[in-house]
Amino acid sequence: MGRAPCCDKASVKRGPWSPEEDAKLKSYIEQHGTGGNWIALPQKIGLKRCGKSCRLRWLNYLRPNIKHGGFSEEEDNIICSLYISIGSRWSIIAAQLPGRTDNDIKNYWNTRLKKKLLGKHRKEQQARRAATVRMKQDNSATAIDQVTTPYSWPQLPPVSHVPVMSNPILVDQEAHIKDQASLRKLLIKLGGRFSDHHHDDYNHEQQSNINNINIANFCYQPNMSSPVQDQQLVFDNTVTLNNNYTNFDVMTESLSSANMMYQGLDCLDSTMDLDQFVYTINQSDPQRPEGLNNNLYGSMERVSGSSCGTSSNSGESNITWGDITSLISYNPMLSDFEPSQQNMLQDFAFEDSITAL
DNA sequence: AAGAGCCGCAACCGCCCACAC
DNA sequence: AGTGTGGGCGGTTGCGGCTCT
C-alpha cells in the first residue's frame, strides 16, 4: 500500500488566491513551519486548497524576501548565461539569484528576455534582407553571384577561450566555492537530469563525468559587485563559457558570431535566416545543408562517438540537437576541439535555444 | 468608446524521482 | 519487491490589464 491520496480535487478551491487565504497560509507557516507535509497543511489551517497549490503559493509569492519584477541588467546577464549553459533548469538558475523564484525567472524569460534578444536579432536579419534586395536592384547583372556569395557578417571582437588556470579572474577560485557540498549536489542534480534523455549508455557515462568533475574547476562567479564582463561560467577546465555581455547589444553579437560560423560552411545560402537554418538541422538529417556533414555535424559525431558511447558502433549518431546542447556544456571531450569550434558550438546551441522557443 | 489583440504573470498540469508503506 | 504518493520541477494555460485600431 502507498500513502493516502493528497487531496480530493473535486472539493479543493482553484484559481487565484484571496488575501484571506494568503494571510492564513503565511501566518501559519511563519509560526509553525510547513511541518514537512504540504498535503496535510491546508487541512490544518482550514484552507480548501490542494497542498501542492499551497506549496506553490508560499514558494512563489508569500515566502519572505521574494522579489518580483524589476530584473536588473546583471540578473538578465546571469539568466542568459545560465540558460545558454544549462538550459531551462529554472530552479538552478533561480538558486543563483537570491529572492527570485524559478517561476518568476521562467516567466521573465518566456515573456521578455527571449523577445528582447530575438527582437534585435530579427532587426538585423531584416536589415540584411533589405540590403540584399537593394543590391539586386542596383546591379541585376550580378544579382545571382551576390545571392550565392556568403554574406559578409560583421566582424566581432574575438571571443577568447580562457584556460581556467591562467585566468586571473579565477586564480582564487577556491575561495569562491564556499559550499562544495552544495555544488556537488548541484552537479549531481545536473547529471541526474541527463537520465531523462534517451541514451542510456551516454547518460551513464555523462553522469560519471559529471560526478568526477573536479569541484575546484567548477566555479560560477556571480560577483554582483563586479562588472558583468568579468563573470564566467566554468564547467570543468575544458569548457569555459565566456560571459562578456555587458549589455544586450553585445549579447546579440553572439548571434552574429553564429552567423559568422555559417560563413565557413560552404552550403550556406545567405538568404536563409538563422531560424530556417536551425530548423533545417532540427527537422531532418537528409535536409541538412551539405556543408554540415563535414563541418559542424561532423564535429557532433566526433563528440558523441568518441566519448559518450552514443551509437558509436555503427558510426551513425542518433544524438539529437538537444543532446548536443548538453554536451557542449558538459562534455570533457570538447577539449579536443579548437577553441573556435567550441565557441561555434556554443553559439549554435544558443541560437538553437533561442530558435526553439 | 468599444472591440480586438497582445502581454505578463499566477496558477495549474503532468511528469519524474525518492521513498513510505 | 512492488505499489503508489509527496515533493519538486518544467511546460502550459487562462485571465486580467494594457494598447492599438
* Overall pLDDT score: 51
**Helical coverage, percent range:** 40-55%
Count, helices:
16
Q: Summarize the main sheet.
A: 3 strands, antiparallel
Strand content: under 5%
Low-confidence stretches: 1-5, 140-357
**End-to-end distance, in Å?**
42 Å
Strand order within the widest sheet?
A: 1-2-3
Integer tally of domains = 2
Number of extended strands: 3
What structural class results from the helix and strand content?
mainly alpha
Element pattern in H and E: HHHHHHHHHHEEEHHHHHH
**Spatial shape:** elongated
* Spatial extent as radius of gyration: 24 Å
GO molecular function: DNA binding
Domain HTH myb-type: 9-62, 63-117
GO cellular component, one term: nucleus
Protein name: SANT/Myb domain
Question: What are the salient characteristics of this protein?
Answer:
single chain, 357 residues, mainly alpha, 16 helices, 3 strands, 55% helix, DNA-binding
Short summary:
It is built from 16 helices and 3 strands. It has 357 residues and is an all-alpha fold.
Blueprint of the fold:
Layout: H1 19-32, H2 41-44, H3 51-62, H4 73-86, H5 90-95, H6 102-138, H7 143-148, H8 173-176, H9 180-194, H10 200-211, E1 219-220, E2 232-235, E3 239-242, H11 248-263, H12 274-283, H13 290-294, H14 296-308, H15 321-330, H16 339-355
Antiparallel strand pairs: 1-2, 2-3
Helix pairs in contact: 6-11, 9-10, 11-16, 12-16, 15-16
The structure holds a DNA duplex (21 and 21 nucleotides).
Question: What do you see in this structure?
Answer:
By secondary structure, this protein is mainly alpha-helical. 30% of the residues are buried. The chain has helices at 19-32, 41-44, 51-62, 73-86, 90-95, 102-138, 143-148, 173-176, 180-194, 200-211, 248-263, 274-283, 290-294, 296-308, 321-330, 339-355, and strands at residues 219-220, 232-235, 239-242. A 3-stranded antiparallel sheet has the order 1-2-3. The model is unreliable at 1-5 and 140-357 (pLDDT under 50). The longest helix is centred in the middle third of the chain and has 37 residues, at 102-138. It binds a DNA duplex (21 and 21 nucleotides) through residues 1-6, 14-17, 37-39, 50-53, 55-57, 59-61, 68-69, 88-91, 102-104, 106-108, 110-112, 192, 195-196. It is found in: Nucleus. Residues 9-62, 63-117 form the HTH myb-type domain. Residues 9-62, 63-113 form the Myb-like domain. This is SANT/Myb domain.
